[in-house]
Specification:
This protein is of the alpha+beta class. The chain has helices at 10-25, 44-48, 60-63, 105-113, 124-133, 161-168, 193-198, 205-212, 244-250, and strands spanning 37-42, 69-75, 86-98, 121-123, 148-155, 222-228, 234-236, 254-260, 265-271. Strands 1, 2, 3, 4, 5, 6, 7, 8 and 9 form a 9-stranded antiparallel sheet that branches.
Length: 274
């Protein structure tokens, strides 16, 4: 191992990451409420690719939170300059849509009794418990194609804000500067200068180079879209009127959001109870 990157203690590395990710979100992580947070993946790409219907989402162990979901075609960033990070998901804490009438009678009736219809969302854990109670195999060929779909997939992480931000930026497995994913390197000029300025206070070279790519509002890979300001409001990098009403409805508890592959999907860190 290079002497230039000695392995820090776990606490020292967490402090380093907290400072660095605080630069990305624009305020110290300690300034956010001490509540559970999560990182979530959603958007058109899930439906268009039909990855929202992959049987892996409704595996019994996955819905019970015992096994993660790994899908090779769901990447944090599209193929490009940064390392391609395959996302790992928590199906039990992801949100699903259901069509009650598409299920066998017992499960369909209970979903209706619970007030669940095609406009409602329920957690994977709740869906798994209901299916188990009625003996329904959610991956069975006999179910109509969109009886259930994943609407918002939770990226696997702990509940702290730091954990959620590490998951959302592909740093969940990095234990020190020696294993930070490759940054932009020679292609760093493809990232807007203001993005580099946003993380200029990050002392570690590897982290600074890597995280600059997550601060560019003009990126075609993963563009910084919205983030919470110190006064609790949100700031839009691109303030488009057509999204104003939607943003008011979905920004509660928002920490930061990125838009991937030119608006095909979103990665959002927000309060888990929002």
């Amino acid at each position: 191992m290079s002497d230039a990157h000695p392995t820090p203690t776990a606490d020292a590395w967490r402090d380093t990451l907290a400072q660095a990710l605080g630069e990305v979100v624009g305020r110290p992580l300690s300034s956010f409420p001490d509540v559970p947070y999560g990182a979530y993946y959603t958007g058109n790409f899930l439906a268009e690719s039909e990855l929202d219907r992959e049987p892996a989402w409704v595996d019994r162990a996955a819905l019970a939170g015992e096994e993660p979901v790994r899908l090779d075609h769901l990447l944090l960033t599209p193929p490009g300059d940064c390392d391609e990070t395959v996302l790992v998901f928590d199906a039990g804490r992801s949100l699903f849509t259901v069509v009650p009438g598409a299920f066998p009678a017992g499960l369909a009736e209970e979903l209706v009794a619970l007030g669940r219809d095609h406009d409602d969302l329920l957690s994977g854990a709740e869906l798994g418990r209901l299916a188990a109670r009625h003996g329904v195999d959610l991956a069975a060929d006999g179910l109509p194609g969109r009886a259930w779909t994943v609407w918002e997939a939770r990226i696997a992480s702990g509940d702290s804000l730091l954990d959620a931000l590490r998951a959302a930026t592909g740093l969940h497995a990095a234990t020190g500067p020696h294993d930070v994913p490759a940054g932009l390197g020679d292609a760093a000029d493809e990232v807007d200068e203001e993005a580099h300025e946003r993380v200029a206070a990050v002392q570690d070279d590897a982290l600074r180079d890597y995280l600059a790519a997550f601060c560019d509002p003009e990126s075609h890979d993963l563009a910084l879209s919205r983030y919470a300001t110190a006064d609790g409001e949100t700031d839009a990098e691109e303030d488009e009127e057509e999204y104003e009403e939607e943003d008011e409805e979905t920004d509660e508890g928002l920490v930061i959001r990125w838009e991937g592959a030119v608006d095909q999907y979103e990665v959002t860190v927000r309060r888990a109870d929002a």
